[in-house]
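Predict the 3D structure for this chain.
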Amino acid sequence: MSSPSHVAQQLSQFIQLEQQLRQADSLPALGFALVNHTGMLCPCDQVFLWQADAERITHAAHVTQVDAHTPLNQWLNQCCQYWSRQANAQQARTLTAEQCPEALASQWSTYLPTNVLWLPLITASPSDTTHPKLIGALLLVSQQAITLQAYPLLSRWQEAASHAFSALQAHQRSARRWQLPGLRRSRQRLLIFIVLAGFIGLFCWPVRQTVLAPAQIEAKNPSILRAPIRGVVADILVKPNSPVSEGQAVVQMDTREIESQLEASRQQYAIAAAEFRQAQQQALSDPRSKASLEVLRRRRDQAASEVRYLADTKTRMTITAPQKGIVIVDNPSDWQGRAVALGERIMQIAQADQQQLNIQLPVNDAIHLTPDTPVRFFLNSQPTTPLKAHLTQLAYRPQPTLEGTLAYPLKAEFDHSVIPDGDKALNAQSRQLGFKGTAKLYGEPTRLGFYLLRRPLSMLRVWLSF
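Done. Predicted structure below.
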């Protein structure tokens, strides 16, 4: 008979083990605690845990992982499946070789000793509490006979294990509702399906690629006025953006050097002409003077050609407008006294009604574009009234911009119906040379998902170098 102190010690140990059992947060942790703590309540050589839903041995004492392919586990699984189908499967009992099928009984002595205690784990179904359900069993293997009468704490241990096991299984079933289990349809699955279908449909929604780029209104096919010779600009005779007529003087070059050269050339011509006349008079009395007449005549003609060239150059020093239009020039005061080279551009004369868009498309925002691609131009001064245009010229080589970035220069022409016919004042004020804004270019159709993730995917490709 056990002493009171020994009984108190056993009860204290049982309470601690039961507390550890109920603190298990998962089925694997619970199985590990069952097979390793059961041996502290009664002497046994080995403890196995068989689960009914898995139909196999899932845990064994002093074993971290059970191999289901070993001969012992395969034989024991067949035995447990047979015992679970018996009428007394939900009752604790001692098992022997006689309680096994004939095909399995012959191997009992090979794998197990004489005494095995079947300790079932049962739980009541939430819908039917009168018919308990077998959810597993503990197999206590020992050389000596183990009974519940000899170890009464095993009954309490069986109840605690059954309760903890059923509670964790219920929690696991509730968590699986969000994991689309099998073919079971629930509100959670339907909600998840609708949300996923909505996201997939939204990402696959067809949209048109668009890109924004800075743009400026400039003249189309303007007349470029260049320096006729190497010299100095004396004065700009017109103001920027002022209208001029054909033949009107717009630039005056410094003619002092040309006038000096012209005066010297005229004196050389006068001398050559006088020498030629004198030789003609001498040739009448002196036949030997006739030999020099041809040389003097060519010298006089050369001097005359020099005079005509310098006179024509002086005339071209006053640059006139080749056509009627608007003057496009930088600050006139910056040009006064400025030395220019031959052919250097000074100003432009543009037609007021011939305009185009100069678009600077950044390299990082480049998309596939084709001629006649539609463009909408939003002026900085009137952002709510876009102007319609279409691409006419594409560049395949980027160029540096004033901001220090690389961009593709594009050209676009305005459509005829840019502004409604009834708004003539807005049409005249909106399309002025030099006005800046933002151009929206429309590319090929694509999917919304690719349109939203195009930039991140491009950065990811550069970062991963593929």
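The chain has three domains: 4-178, 223-348, 354-464.
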